[in-house]
Amino acid sequence: MMRTAARQTSSMSGERHFDAGKRWVVKIGSSLVTGGGTGLAVDAVADWVDQIAQARRDGIGIVLVSSGAVVEGMARLGLRERPASIHLLQAAAAVGQMGLVQLYESNFQRHDMHTAQVLLTHEDLRNRERYINARSTLRSLLDLGVVPVVNENDTVTTEEIRFGDNDTLAGMVANLIEATTLLLLTDQAGLFDADPRQNPAAKLIREASARDEGLREVAGAGSALGRGGMVTKLSAARVADRSGASTVIAAGAEPDVITRLANGEVTGTLLRADRELVASRKRWLAGLPRKGRLVLDAGAVRVLLKGGGSLLAVGVTGLTGHFTRGELVACETEAGVEIACGLINYGWTESSQIMGQPSRAIESILGYVSDEELIHRDNLVLL
Q: 290-382 adopts what CATH topology?
């Protein structure tokens, strides 16, 4: 079962000390990059670049995940509302991406630093070979002293495979490069125990576990310009946690927010990782989209959490989704808590026939045995 960690709250951000390590992913949201949707915030971007450049000189490798392409494209095209049409959205992204990259490149050039544009889709991280290629490219760029600027490839993605927000993308990139810290810069001071826009008595959550399920109850929705919100930031923190990276949610407008974190000072909400770095292949597995869900009985949950064993069909009491052999499925308790995920050895039709049955009965039910395990422990990741 997941443990809910105690939270520290405060009406002021205060000063805390935290070793953020030497490899970060920094994500800057749409409302910050575009000054609330009026066009690129040139002065603010210049300030963040100055801070990132200093951190880079101090030996911190940083991958920058920047929103703002769609919003900048909207401003250039005279669109007042975010397009509902996927094709118009892609067109706006294509137009806006040019200005966004140019702004970052010109600012980093002031520090004699190079940038690299890296556009990713979900498919890039679902395919093992492309995942490894993307990881190798980003690592090589960091080794060369280059600052990769990552965005979702909005111009080619479809509704089925898009990340949905750059918070999720940032969490997956943190997983990809084995980051020590994920820094999510937003227009809020951090995560509060209530909506500060509605409740003036709301207190900042200074520190909590990235796996604290109760945090979702206080997370609000995103803005009209961006697709994210605190909910997606918590999801990103959970993804980063899988690879041992802690997450900081902080106000991008806070003076020297990046520099202060490099010096060990947290100005917003710190969501600490609860686990050590996991093996590369299992990090990749944990980042794949779930194609279905399996409900496990208490015995199966105990075997997975305590014994590190494989998942057998006999321990499954229910399932949802339409998955095929080899796709990733989530493993949940009967209370709906996701405890693991893994590559399943049988498709949805076969799994629905053999669930709850002992392994020795598989052949008589299906007429063949592909594997004795529903999910082998080598293809299973505990969450």
A: 2.30.130
- Indicate the Cα dihedral angle 188, 194, 199, 202, nearest 10°: -80
Hey, where are the domains in the chain?
8-282, 290-382
What 3-state DSSP class applies to 192? strand
Rounded to an integer, what distance in angstroms lies between the CA atom of residue 66 and that of residue 102? 13
Per-residue pLDDT of the chain (383 residues; tens, 9 = 90+): 333 445 676 544 445 678 999 999 999 988 899 887 678 999 999 999 999 999 999 999 999 999 888 888 988 998 888 888 888 888 988 999 999 999 999 999 999 999 999 999 877 887 777 888 888 899 999 999 999 999 888 777 665 445 657 898 999 899 889 899 999 999 889 999 887 778 888 899 999 998 887 887 776 544 443 444 788 899 899 888 888 899 999 999 999 999 999 999 999 999 999 766 666 677 778 777 889 999 999 999 999 988 678 999 999 999 999 998 888 999 999 999 889 999 999 999 999 999 999 999 999 999 999 889 999 988 898 87
Angle, in degrees to the nearest 10, between helices 69-77 and 86-109: 110
What pTM was estimated for this model as a whole?
0.76
Q: Is 290-382 the same fold as 8-282?
A: no
CATH of 8-282 given 3.30.1330.10, 1.20.1050.10, 3.30.300.20, 3.40.1160.10: 3.40.1160.10
CA distance 207 to 228: 21
